[in-house]
Amino acid sequence: MPHEPFSGTFAAARMKPFATIGSVAAFLLLAGQSTARADAATLPPATTASATTPAVALDQSTPKALLRSFFASRGEVDEATLRALLHAATSAEQKLLDSVVQVELAYSRLRAAERQRFGVAATTTAPSMASSQGIDVDTLEDIDALTEKIQGDHATVSSPMNANITMQLVRVDGKWKLPIAGQAGRVDPTIADTLGVATRAQVEIIDSVTADVRAGRFASDDQVQQELSRRFAERLASATRPANPSATQPAGT
Q1: Tens digits of per-residue pLDDT, 98-150?
Q2: Helix (H/G/I), strand (E/B), else coil: 39
Q3: Could you give phi then psi for residue 175, rounded to 5 degrees?
């Protein structure tokens, strides 16, 4: 599990746009499991409105071409591009992919509000390129240095320093994509069924902070980051708190 599950996924100050897909996916799996008993009716529907992000054409002709073009976009991509980037092989993985896309679109709205208010997007949404698969790159030159191996419709790109550190890709209908399972691991269908609740909760929090940014309630991007982390922590703590704390107490205490 990544150590920063609440970091946004794609672009911002440090512009390292790949792998917090894994962070968001892993958090959604954790949150989905933790909120399995939550009442979905208490949460508003997840918004599907995307931020005004220009369409970016990904070069999906080779694995490294895909990584280069996505990196060059700095992660500021629209919903169609996000869906073109990722691949789900099962219905459970598709639920996770849908959740990741909704959360990423919410972060995109937050980044847009931050840029309008502060001139730049906060480090709140700066992703770490260190993915759940271990690849860590900072520049296009780093991508060029990766070792690419293609076997049929499957490929890996690996670190030139350690061939055991790899990122998996898959070719679907002639286009290379990142498999969602490679980012988050095996998706348990029973957990995937709870992702809707977790997604709505996370999007609700991000959008509420976005509204506060637009209303001028924060003096700096650091305050935005702190408030976002605080609200996520509160929500996760609430989801994992026993429904009946007294039931866990020994008799007579």
Answers
A1: 988 898 889 889 988 998 999 876 544 433 333 445 566 677 788 899 999 99
A2: coil
A3: -120, 135
